[in-house]
Write a structure and sequence with these properties.
It comes from Streptomonospora mangrovi. The protein is mainly α and 281 residues long. Helix content is 77%, strand content 0%. It is globular and about 55 Å long.
């Protein structure tokens, strides 16, 4: 069941990634980010009282709040890296570091012990993510910009790692209140990014609703991940949930009729193999 939940989380995040990318073509990314987090917050606050067993302690809420800080930091630095025009650096570096760091923390500090097959799947996941997340094409910014973008990507990856590791520490009796607490701190973390660009954040009502809806889907993704982490090993849940970059690639083919570069095809095959190994292990 944990495998299904983690993959459901990846699918939800993939939809958010795809939809957010389309929205950011028409509206300022900061507005999309803020409205998305606000939508997730409203949905989590509305749903949390209805979920059985929702009796969080202060520690559970603190872990959830820290997770939200990771979400906000990851988003801010990911977007900052992308504004430098270094997508071929930022997306794969943030994706791989965002999965590698939680695995290291889980094994070295939290005592997670994956099986041998799961370890093979984890080892296959990193290069698969790199290939899937790396857009095709050459060129790119000058070396100094690429270096700065790589730093942004690593910080974004640390933010994602904090999001996953911290949320998994909330107890199962807390319900989804830790997710709600995380949406509060995520909004507060993203807000400094939005304020300087306030005069340029005009959006149509339709786009604003779409951004809020994507935030709801992102909150659902975190709920699925939280349930998956409680059902099994955190490191396995993180790796499976981190395959979300495959979803925008597949949606790009199905919806936008985009072509998939050969390295991405290899990455998708590697991702499928890693999922099979992790599910079996």
């Amino acid at each position: 069941m944990g495998t299904v939940l983690a993959l459901a989380s990846a699918c939800c995040y993939g939809v958010v990634d795809f939809g957010g990318g389309l929205l950011a073509r028409r509206a300022h990314f900061a507005a999309v980010a803020l409205l998305g987090q606000a939508g997730g917050l409203l949905a989590a606050l509305a749903a949390a009282p209805l979920v059985p067993g929702g009796a969080p302690g202060l520690t559970d809420l603190a872990w959830g709040a820290l997770s939200g800080v990771g979400t906000g930091v990851g988003m801010v630095f990911l977007f900052r890296g992308l504004t430098r025009g270094a997508m071929t650096v930022v997306v794969p570096v943030s994706a791989v570091s965002g999965v590698a760091l939680p695995v290291l923390v889980g094994v070295l500090l939290l005592g997670d012990r994956p099986t041998a097959l799961a370890w093979v799947g984890i080892a296959a996941a990193a290069p698969a993510l790199w290939l899937v997340a790396r857009p095709g094409g050459g060129g790119g910014p000058v070396d100094s910009a690429r270096t700065a973008a790589a730093v942004d990507a690593l910080v974004a990856g640390v933010g994602v790692a904090v999001q996953y590791v911290a949320l998994a520490q909330a107890g199962p009796d807390a319900g989804i209140w830790p997710v709600a607490a995380g949406r509060v701190t995520a909004v507060l973390t993203v807000l400094p990014l939005v304020l300087p660009a306030l005069s340029r954040l005009r959006m149509s009502a339709r786009d604003a609703l779409a951004a809020g809806a994507l935030g709801v889907v992102a909150a659902v993704a975190l709920v699925f991940y939280l349930l998956a982490a409680h059902d099994g090993l955190m490191v396995v849940a993180v790796v499976l949930a981190s395959f979300y970059p495959a979803i925008p690639v597949l949606l790009g083919v199905a919806v936008l009729r985009e072509r998939v570069a050969p390295p991405q095809v290899a990455g998708l095959v590697g991702a499928a193999a890693a999922v099979a190994l992790l599910s079996t292990g």
